[in-house]
Amino acid sequence: MAKELFLCAVLALCIVALQAELKTPRIQVYSRYPPNAGEENTIHCYVDQFYPPNIDITLLRNGEPIENTARSDLSFDTSWAFNVLVYAKIIYNKNDEITCRVKHSSLSQPKIVKWDPAY
What share of the chain is helix, strand, coil (3-state, %, to 5)? Predict the structure, then answer.
């Protein structure tokens, strides 16, 4: 009897998982402080509203990965949409292009969002 109940529970979980729909991530790139050339700042790439939770997020400076990035724990809301924050300290240079690249199963190709220092 216990085996049958266990199999029913597993089957129910599988059905729920199969019915889950892909949710495309929303991406926001911003700095902790207003940018000043030559000064340290923290760049944030906040990604939310995505499902499933498997996601690859990379902060880039002039197309190259920024070293020593950190990542928050993966969190979710009541609709099972996930969110995460990736961030790194940088020395701001007005000639640098800072972007956040996101790879997710809901996207046909990686999505790249550019940081706008004026924003």
Answer: 15, 45, 40
